[in-house]
Amino acid sequence: MKVIERYIFGRALLLFFASLVWTLAIVWTTQILTRINLVTDSGQSALAFFQIAAMVLPSVIPVVLPFATIIAVAQTLNTMNNDSELVVISAAGASPTIIARPVILLSVLASIASFAIDNGVDPYARQKGRDLVAAARADMLSAVIQEGTFRKIEEGLFIQIGERLPDGRLGGIFVADSRTEGTDLVYYARTGTVVEQKDQTILVMQDGEIQRKVAGKGISTIRFLSYAFDLSMFTAAAGKPRLYPKDMTLPYLLHPDPDDQMYQKSPKVFRAEIHRRFSEWIYPLVFALVAFAVIGNARSHRESRINPVVTAVVIALIVRWSGYVAANQVQVTSRIWPLVYLIPLCTAGISIWFIATNRAMELPVTAAERLTAFMRRIGERMMFMRFRRSGPTSEEAA
Q1: Is the pLDDT of residue 283 over 90?
Q2: 253 with 227, same domain?
Q3: Residue 398 has pLDDT above 60, yes or no
Q4: Are residues 261 and 354 in the same domain?
Q5: Residue 370 maps to a domain
Q6: Is 396 a member of any domain?
Q7: Structural domain total, the chain
Q8: What pLDDT is stored for residue 284 in this prediction?
Q9: Domain check: are 289 and 345 in the same one?
């Protein structure tokens, strides 16, 4: 690799990691916030939360990698063009491949990383994450032994513990069971304990009563000295995570178990997942070509309708959205699976044509004018809000 190629690759690589970290942090945060309630409701520790959050990370990286690539490449080339570095390189008689090689190298590395994570790391991380979630839901001891709060065990079943006594027993036990349609059961006991017997989890309630309400038949009350409420069926059901095609490894997707109920029910979803994995890794390379087609050649951008970096990102968003829609529609109509590959490949082909003919890829005039007007309105609105915050008050003006 020549000196100028190392220079371009180094700048692009630095911007790539910077944009990857910040974009990944934003997307990752939005994903893990949806799982806070699961951990808090089941009484899990902060360590369990961070373990579940870490298992989400591999599924976020392949989504972020293409956009980190286009931001890095577009910003690097745009800065070099504004500083006249591309003009100097072109005037020195250097071939355009001098600029293209480091860009392609960066995008190829990003594509390889995307494929490896999406097909090698993410399925195992997803399965581990679902195991952690299932364990959190199955941890009945932590769910039950929480003083003064209602805990939802499953739909229609709630348990509340009034207090935890010094000798380890539970006081003020309240259980509401409305899982059977037309029948409501309410259990109340003064004391009780949670007993583990082999594979069974039993809530033994003492000195209490059961109120049974049947629609149209009134309420009946039964007092008891000791009553065992079996919780093992809930812990067993919660402890078995349900795996989806996104959680499966690539070999399993290619050769699924014929007895798999999920595969028997929705075989199209398995095929759609295969096409998604075989096409998603291409996008870092495609987006790098788009950025190079928009900004790669030495030219003045003063007459451009909008910033070329914005143009590249907008084109990338449109292409990625189209690919996402096509991948989802394959689950419904399997005949359109070629679109999943044609969208990125056609975009790459169009970008290569622009590069080969020394033309700048731009948005259509109407779309560019609308986007420019929209950005101008946002800028004016932000300036107005800044002026209102920093301007003098009515009393100071008077």
Answers
A1: yes
A2: no
A3: no
A4: yes
A5: yes
A6: no
A7: 2
A8: 93
A9: yes
| Helix-strand-coil split of the chain, %, nearest 5 | 65, 15, 20
Among candidate residues 71, 142, 73, 66, the one with its CA nearest the CA of residue 102:
73
Whether residues 375 and 291 share a domain: the answer is yes
Q: Give the pLDDT mean for 152-178.
A: 80
Length of the chain counted residue by residue? 398
Show which of 204, 235, 266 is a domain's final residue: 235
DSSP 8-state symbol, 227: E
DSSP string, 311-360: HHHHHHHHHHHHHHHHHHHTTT-GGGTHHHHHHHHHHHHHHHHHHHTT--
**66: helix, strand or coil:** helix
The count of C-alpha atoms lying within 13 angstroms of the C-alpha of 238, restricted to the half-sphere facing its C-beta, is 22
Looking at residue 96, what DSSP letter applies? T
Q: Which two tokens stand for residue 197?
A: 């017997």
Mean pLDDT of 43-55: 71
Whole-structure pTM value: 0.68
In a domain, 64, yes or no: yes
- Do 77 and 98 belong to one domain? yes
pLDDT of residue 110: 93
Query: Cα–Cα distances in Å, from 56 out to 34, 45, 122, 293?
Result: 11, 18, 8, 34
239-248: pLDDT as tens digits = 456 677 888 8
Kind and range of the H or E element at 161? Answer: strand 157-164
Within this chain, do residues 187 and 171 fall inside the same structural domain, yes or no?
yes
Range of the structural domain that residue 170 is part of: 146-235
- Of 235, 261, 289, which residue is a domain's last? 235
Shared domain for 247 and 269, answered yes or no, is yes
Q: Are strands 183-197 and 200-214 parallel, antiparallel or unpaired?
A: antiparallel
Instruction: Tell me whether residue 194 is in a domain.
Output: yes
Higher pLDDT, 188 or 376: 188
Name, in order, each residue with C-beta under 8 angstroms of 129's C-beta and a sequence gap of 6 or more: 52, 55, 56
CA of 265: how far to CAs of 41, 99, 245, 326, 331, in Å? 32, 50, 12, 21, 12
pLDDT of 390 > 60? The answer is: no
Give yes or no: residues 227 and 154 share one domain. yes
